[in-house]
Amino acid sequence: MKQVSAIIVGAGHRSMLCASYARSHPDELKIVGVADPNEWRRKQAQDIYGFPDDMCFETAEALADKGKLADAIINGTMDMQHVPTALPLLEAGYDMLLEKPISISEDEVRQLLKTTRKCGRKVMICHVLRYAPFYVEVRKRVKEGEIGDLVSVMTVENVSYHHMGTCFVRGKWNRRECGSSMLMSKCCHDLDLITWMKSGIAPKAVASFGSLMYFKPENAPEGSGTRCLVDCKIEESCDYSCRKHFIDQNLWGAYAWQHMEHEDQSVGNKIRSLKEENPHGRCVWRCDNDVVDHQTVAIEFSDGSTASHNMIGGTSKPCRSIHLIGTKGEIQGVMEDGTFVVRHPDARAGHEYTEVNVDMSMTGDGHGGGDLRLVEDFVRTLRGDTASISSTNLEDSIYGHLIGFGADRARVERRYVDIIE
User: Fold this and answer.
1) What domain range is 57 assigned to?
2) Is this prediction's pTM over 0.70?
3) Number of neighbours of residue 57 by Cβ within 10 angstroms
4) What is the pLDDT of residues 98-150, one digit of tens each?
5) Do both 154 and 136 map to the same domain?
6) What is the Cα–Cα distance from 171 to 175, expressed in whole angstroms?
7) Which residues of 348-384 are buried (b: 16+ CB within 10 A; e: fewer)?
8) Are residues 304 and 409 in the same domain?
């Protein structure tokens, strides 16, 4: 079986995580180069994987100009860079594992699909939840017809207060002009799960409502300031204290300290940073954020079935839930709990329905164990093996994105949007 060679493009957290599969499975995947404008990140990748200096590039374009130097690309660039970096590399002959969301616009998604078809390349999208054991088992049962034909799909994502504050209020996804909407940045996983459960049946139309309701200046508590550690009188009691989030708990430190990745990261220097230039030191009610903090999406499919997704930011518990109702039963569960329930009607005297609990073991990571399973499937696909039930090829992943782009237009324009295949 052939070893797959790959080059990292955009050596950030997500692509480096995917690339780590090569360290545990060196017979299957070998990292042979990197392209990133940041010299420190290029050197970090080179130190880990031991490739020579002439396999380090500042841009995807510089890499593409050299022709095909490996089998595949692991593209973990920022959202707005996905398609501009992908196109020249596909033209150069590479297959690609591409971070989600595919792009920041519907036109770019369609352009990427056109180029992929023209070049005859394989592009898989990092919809890692398809590979989480919880969702794999749910999908298998739907595919086998255990609950009949799907009539309704309902999903919810509760974005915890510390995740919301870090990424979508203080952080680099807090403004629409920075790239994707919050729905596409945070919930393209969920929209993809909906279309996956519908087994390729095309979405027909979408409507959506939502707004920035809570994280704005008029809701700032009395005594709050502009920066937590500078002029806030209630920092010690505030749940959004940057000291609590990034010093005491450090739950999302990978984002808060990203600009300091090759600097002194002592506690003293971190506190100085939060007091001065670090955007994560700002009061969550006095940032420059404009993305929604809650949104509801309603979808109609071509077979007449419907689906809904609710995204709520600032919740106490981070979790994703799913409820599928079919013509012969239903499935309901929460991924983080690791269990779901299968129910069937039971009209016998003294009964209303039967209920079976399915317990799925969890691996402990935030994507339910899906990250490296996705990379494994990508490698197996390039080696010629049969793709798994979770396969995230580009054509299969587009429907969820079309729903997301349509939902954002529907929300802003306050109208019902038809989805064109």
Assistant:
1) 4-99
2) yes
3) 21
4) 999 999 999 999 999 999 999 999 999 999 999 999 999 999 999 999 999 99
5) yes
6) 9
7) eeeeeeeeeeeebebeeeebbbbbbbbbbbbbbbbee
8) yes
